[in-house]
Amino acid sequence: MAYFMSNLIMKHSIDNLIEEVEIVTPGEVLGRATNLKAGKRAYVTYRNKTIYAFLTSFRCIKSLPPDHRRLIAKVTGNKAHGPVSESGSVVIARVTKVTARITSIDSMCVGTESVREKFSGIIGQQDVRATEIDKVDMHLSFRPSDIVRVVVLSLGDARAYHLSTAKNELSVISDKSSAGAATMVPISWAEMQCPLTGQLEQRKVAKVES
Predict the structure, then answer these.
(1) What is the pLDDT of residue 32?
(2) Neighbours of 13 (CB within 10 A)
(3) Where is the Exosome complex component CSL4 C-terminal domain positioned along the sequence (predicted)?
(4) In the chain, which ranges are continuous DSSP H helix?
């Protein structure tokens, strides 16, 4: 359908203000922060002064009255996209990769709502816990396929959100044993146990909600 063509561009007047709209995807450049202001569902990386979109929808460049110095670049919402994550949002996600310095995740839920358009995020070694940061071992904190509860620190860059598990109620909430035999049971803040084999595995375990 023409409505979804990637080169769709529309211009129209609203109360003498001009809007230009086109379809964009997550991480796509909306413009430069030197001549545009980041609006809703857009974010700025001040390192390169660039504004990006963080969901697939419509790029809107809206002119403002003369007393405003810059146009606003925003991404207009669409209910079909489901919940949108922002700084401070609690996200349920699945671990996809673990390295010595970074754990990568794919989102599953924002708050209590399932996401329809998944986004990627990273947990840096310094954001795993609040104390003894220099002693964090990523491979003893997470494993691929773990389900984790995280909080969004920032929208990051065009590739991934920056996330944290540095609170007691955050981190691994569900996982399978290494053999995949059963869902592990938390027995402490640092260990989970397979109920079938009794095998213990180390994790950064989220505090069980009462």
Answers:
(1) 80
(2) 9
(3) 112-155
(4) 138-141
C-alpha angle 138/87/176, rounded to 5°?
35
Q: Tokens 């494993």 belong to which residue?
A: 143
Reported as a single tens digit per residue, the pLDDT across 74-131 is 555 555 455 667 788 899 999 999 999 999 999 988 887 777 778 899 999 999 999 9
Burial of 5 (0-12, 13-18, 19+ CB in 10 A): exposed
pLDDT value at residue 116: 75
Q: How many domains does the chain have?
A: 2
Cα 27 to the center of its chain, rounded Å: 12
Would you state the structure tokens that stand for residue 189, as one six-digit string?
A: 């803040």
Domain hosting 193: range is: 90-202
Question: Taking Cα atoms as reference points, which of 34, 68, 36, 70 lies closest to residue 53?
Answer: 36
pLDDT for residue 205: 94
Q: Within a domain: residue 210?
A: no
Structure tokens at 56: 């697939």
**Positions in the chain short of pLDDT 50:** 1-19, 80
Domain co-membership, 54 together with 99: no
